[in-house]
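A quick word before the example. In earlier lectures we treated sequence and structure as two separate objects. From today on, think of them as two lines of the same record. Here is ABC transporter substrate-binding protein written that way.
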Amino acid sequence: MLHALARPKTTQGRHASRASGLVALALAAAVTLAGCGTAGADAASSDAPATTAAATTDGVVVEHAHGSTTIAEKPERIVALGWMTPDIVAALGVNPVGIEKVWGAGESGFQPWFEEFVTAEFGEMPEIIPYTDDGPNYEAIKALEPDLILGLYTGISDVEYERLTEIAPTVPYIERAWDPSTWQDMTRTVGKAMWADEKAEELVAETEGDIAALADEHPEFDGKTFVWGLTLNEGGTDLGVYLEYDPRVRITEALGFTSTSAMDDFLSTAEGDNWYTGVSLENLYDVQADLFVAWGANAAEGTYTVENPIVSRWEPIAADSYVIYGDEANASAISAPTVLSLDYVLPTYVDDLAAALQGEPTVSGK
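And the structure line, produced from the sequence above:
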């Protein structure tokens, strides 16, 4: 299939000023994505299919955080809310009738990989559901006459769920708000809800195979250590870093890299179910890594970070072994991975990683 954000908060609250621009990137839980995932799950492979749905003589039943949903017939008109779900629905062969505009979308309102795929496969784009400050836009959703509403990577509340089910059968998040689990399990759950289990398994196997092939093409990645983190704000005193169950970390490991030996320290300082923590700049030199990968709001933040007097002397930065994405498309594609976004971002990502190991860093963005 391959062709050739939540930003963490820190104890100092240094990212508070960016919150408004990152709300859709998973609204704080944005990316429990990155938790986005279940701790300890493997990014490249997932041995057992998701067990959140089951077929019955009356249809398919999907268990989730707000109860269970029965999909009595194969759906044809699907509203896909939040991150990731629209990609999966389209990849499984159905053009959503409506989606929400999410962080990382271009001027058209669609993420570039989604727009390219849907245009090629279906010839027309879904309706963009207008945003409201009060949760889902029920009137706009109802007007689309859906027979299924999917919102696995959202924060749909109990009340919102009840109102949505008055419109059509609804599948919200499975366990925790803003936590879709791994991209594999999310693909399988959406596939089950769409009566497309076999196609979902095919997509997972194909994408895992693509990741493995890229790893095989780059044996130099094997054993190299890395940290996935964030750019600094002006005046920032700690560097945000992601934990081992974040999808950005898991995908990079699937390509052959090894997380920094400081990961245990990162985990010990993380609060609650957070998928990130912060490293004080005064302790940064204790974090061993051959490579630093990060994302920021723009290229200027990347430049500011690597030119910081302390950060500039940190091992991977001093060796020019870093990749910093300051563009929303790449940041969004790797932060909320799907079979479509990985197809879009991995070739560039792998090339950038390989170049960084040769002392040719990347700082992208406007």
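Notice the following. Residues 1-52 have pLDDT under 50 and may be disordered. We will return to this example when we discuss secondary structure assignment.
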